Amino acid sequence: MQQLWIEGKSRRRRRPDVVGFVNGIPLLFVELKAHHRKLQVAYDDNLSDYLDVIPNLFHCNAFVLLSNGLESKIGAATSKFEYFNDWKRIREEEEGIVSLDTIVLGVCEKARFLDLFENFILYDDSMGKVVKLIAHNHQFIGVNKAVGHFVEKRAGTGEDRQKLGVFWHTQGSGKSYSMVFLAQKIHRKIPGSFTFLIVTDREELDKQIYGTFAGVGVVDDKRQRAKSGEDLKRLLKTSSRYIFTLIHKFNFEEEITGRDDIIVISDEAHRTQSGTLALNMRNACPELLLGFTGTPIFKDDQITARIFGDYVSVYDFKRSVEDGATVPLYYENRGEKLKLDNPQISQQMRDAIEQADLDPDQEEMVKRQFAREYPIITAEKRLRSIARDVVWHFNNRGYKGKGMFVAIDKVPAVKMYHFITEEWEKYIGETEKTCNSSAAIRSGW
Fold first, then answer.
1. Are 26 and 14 in contact (CB under 8 A)?
2. Where does 8-136 have alpha helices with state H?
3. Which residues pair with 245 in a beta bridge?
4. How far apart are the C-alpha atoms of 140 and 115, rounded to whole Å?
5. CA 350, CA 142: separation in Å to the nearest integer?
6. Phi-psi group of 174: left, alpha or beta (phi > 0 → left; psi -120 to 50 → alpha; rest → beta)
7. How far is CA 193 from the centre of its chain?
């Protein structure tokens, strides 16, 4: 094995551990440490030094691998250490293991390396500066499974060829970027003039997903976001590579185009794809359907499976937490603290939820039971007690962080906003009063 010395600034020289060349271009940089050294040392001491002394080596760099034999991570030369990620799996169904062997096989095998280099690097400037993004392990595997499934379906016949499956990657796992990777790879690798129709059911989601595509330079024309039903009709008649719309813009029933190369990516697919608007969408163009969701589809949800087909890729919450891509979720039953325990309601709700296959009579019975309990669940006394507990909990749990309140419907959600605001102001006032009293005592007043 030959040692590679590189001369840099002020004629200083450095000898990297491993440099991977593709057709003479140094696309891969590997820094190795002994197993008793922390992996971050490879980043803080070595990589930082190389970037300072021999920066020219990184002008064409695609990936940086850091390993101490026990831990191994991949990232970009410009990434902070916390954005270097594990590469634990070659196939999705594997449990996953952090090892140098796995990351070398998963990243540096010839076909995977070139695929990762060509199709799984993005440059995002949506945050005000350009950030280089490398796909995570689950995105690389999931997108490739979806592309392979797409190729199989296109080669098939019959109605099922339209069902491209459900891409279930949990919240916080980068679904928007996965959409970009998927669409871009299909455009690059599969012959055709495909149009991707990205459909959401909320304005903020539409804005966020369009912002992701725009931030990485895939789209640059806001006119690709449908403003109305009429505007959507206009867009469907064009050859645009990307169209962004809310499902609500399909407020018309006529057929707009006979194209069979429009690929619909439906975000949160389980929510809106079985109603009238979705039917209008399918009548407007004979599209190919791919569902994206961060929420698992219930085992008895036959509607979503009938529309989209089976799962094509799964990256669930448990695996995301294990990989460190998502923070853990903990459940604490606070009913006893709130003195709101009502076993009868809990059991009735549990019984209603656990019934998987209700006939019409049973559905009506559940609705009647729920209607009787609704006034209790949304009673002002109960909501105010919860609001008081929410404020106390957030100020005494010992760490900073976000929170989400989930209400049974919109009315109690709005009420809770006002109740929590009131309780927050009370808490601040009481805290200030306590602090002022303590200060007065200490000063001898």
1. no
2. 39-41, 48-53, 100-103, 110-119
3. 199
4. 9
5. 34
6. left
7. 27
Query: Residue 265's beta-bridge partner residues?
Result: 198, 290
Contact 369, 352 (CB under 8 A): yes
The Cβ of residue 71 has, within 10 Å, a number of other Cβ atoms equal to 19
Residue whose C-alpha is closest to residue 420's, from 396, 392, 388 = 388
Burial of 9 (0-12, 13-18, 19+ CB in 10 A): exposed
Token representation of residue 392:
């106390």
Residues 6+ apart with CB under 8 A from 391: 420, 423, 424, 426, 427
- Cα 163 to Cα 260: distance, rounded to the nearest angstrom: 13
Give the integer Cα–Cα distance in Å for 15 and 421. Answer: 60
CA atoms within 13 A on the CB side of 386: 20
Tens-binned pLDDT, residue by residue, of the chain (445 aa): 567 899 998 889 999 999 999 999 999 999 999 999 999 999 999 999 999 999 999 999 999 999 999 999 999 999 999 999 999 999 999 988 999 999 999 999 999 999 999 999 999 998 888 999 999 999 999 999 999 999 988 887 666 777 788 888 888 889 999 999 999 999 999 999 999 999 988 899 999 999 999 999 999 888 999 999 999 999 999 989 999 999 899 988 888 888 888 998 888 755 656 668 878 888 888 667 788 877 665 555 555 667 777 888 988 888 888 877 777 776 666 655 555 555 555 555 555 555 545 555 665 666 666 666 778 788 899 899 999 999 998 888 877 777 778 888 888 999 999 999 999 999 999 988 888 776 666 665 5
Q: Where are the beta strands (DSSP E) in 193-287?
A: 195-200, 242-246, 262-267
| Rounded distance between C-alpha atoms, residue 401 and residue 394, angstroms | 8
The residue behind tokens 């060829």 is 161
Maximal C-alpha separation, the chain: 88
Q: What is the pTM of this model?
A: 0.78
Q: Are 122 and 180 spatial neighbours (Cβ–Cβ below 8 Å)?
A: yes
What's at 294, amino acid-wise? G
How many whole angstroms separate alpha carbon 244 and alpha carbon 265?
A: 10
Q: Are 66 and 29 in contact (CB under 8 A)?
A: no
Q: For the chain, how far is it from start to end, CA to CA, in angstroms?
A: 79
At 167 the three-state DSSP class reads strand
Question: Is residue 252 a contact partner of residue 276, using CB atoms and an 8 Å limit?
Answer: no
Task: Check: CB of residue 291 under 8 Å from CB of residue 270.
Answer: yes
